[in-house]
Amino acid sequence: MFRRSLLCAAVLGLTVSLAHAQAFPAKPIKLVIAFPAGGPTDITMRQLADNASKIIGQPIVVENKPGAGGTLPAQALQTAPADGYTVGQIPLGVFRLPYTTKINWDPVKDINYVINVTGYAFGIVVPADSPFKTWKDFVAYAKANPGKLTYGSTGTLTSPHLTTELIAQQAGIELQHVPYKGSADLMLAVISGQLMAAADSTGFAPQVEAGKLRVLNTWGEKRLAKFPDAPTLKELGYDIVQNSPFGIGAPKGTPPEVVKKLHDAFKQAMEEPSYVAALGRYDMLPNYLSSADYTKFAQTTFAREKALIEKLGLAKPQ
Fold it and tell me: How does DSSP classify residue 158?
């Protein structure tokens, strides 16, 4: 009798799970973005969400949660119901969080990784009227004036911040970092002369093309077609490539059938020309990882980011 009861309970649980998955989605889905409205991440993810909405049959509503180095969407997943109706962008900074901040959740185990979608093209820019015509000029000034050269990024412990600090370490210079919540505010600060430089994704392209900013370097494997005169970090003698992949996660415990529906909708949305074109505006490329491969990426990245944090001396005692 007891065994039969357990079997009935298991069958009932499976039936309920399957019924939920078949009904999903029965209402709008919320996609939480780590950066402010109007920047490259927001614009490209809104296009992806719009495409996926048409495929999955319900609106996917974008909610911006900037700040905290891009980790707020991942934190929001820790308290959201595991039903597929709240998903969030997972920037690389999420994997650094436990090494710099005391948290009570695990970025690898406590997020259900749905799909990786893209990554950024980064670089360092200065105002067009800056005396720094080249990266060599930048380094020479920094060496002559330790700690006086100011640069901004889209937040403390984000990829632009940490990568610039790694570059500075290898170049033997000391810089003064100023964090901002997003690209829009950062670009205003550097164009107005509040900052001497900015490290950011290529959301700075319109300002460069308008003659307001100058690109000193880019961080990919190869030079960007949009900025053919800007050398890569490798060309400048630094063994650094940074494109900061990111994707979409769901709360831990989200039913596998629901995760698959979300994955399939976003994967199809990635293949739409409108999304590829939106990425192209910022020199970004589709970077697909399945749910299984994205989970493996999270595991290996978590270990790699620990090494970077320790190398820069930024790890905090827990």
Answer: S
User: d(Cα 21, Cα 19) in Å, to the nearest integer?
Assistant: 5
Tokens describing residue 59: 């609106």
Instruction: Give the global pTM.
Output: 0.82
> DSSP secondary-structure letter at 232?
B
Residues 82-101: tens digit of each pLDDT:
999 999 999 999 999 999 88
Q: How confident is the model at residue 3 (pLDDT cuts 50, 70, 90)?
A: low
What separation in angstroms does the CA of 94 have from each of 103, 106, 141, 298?
11, 10, 33, 10
- In terms of phi and psi (left: phi > 0; alpha: psi -120 to 50; beta: otherwise), the region of 18 is alpha
Residue 175 to residue 153: CA distance in whole angstroms: 12
Packing angle of the helix pair 256-270, 291-311 (nearest 10 deg)? 80
DSSP 230: S
Q: How many CA atoms lie within 13 A of 318 on its CB side?
A: 9
Tokens matching residue 74: 């991942």
Residue type, 73: P
Q: What is the pLDDT of residues 201-248, one digit of tens each?
A: 998 999 999 999 999 999 999 999 999 999 999 999 999 999 999 999
Instruction: State the first-to-last Cα distance of the chain, in angstroms, to the nearest integer.
Output: 50
Enumerate residues 6+ apart whose C-beta is below 8 A from 137: 131
The tens digit of pLDDT for each residue in 274-317 reads 999 999 988 998 999 999 999 999 999 999 999 999 989 888 76
Neighbours of 270 (CB within 10 A): 20
**b/e 119-153 (16+ beta carbons within 10 angstroms → b):** bbbbbbbbbeebebeebeebbebbeeeeeebbbbb
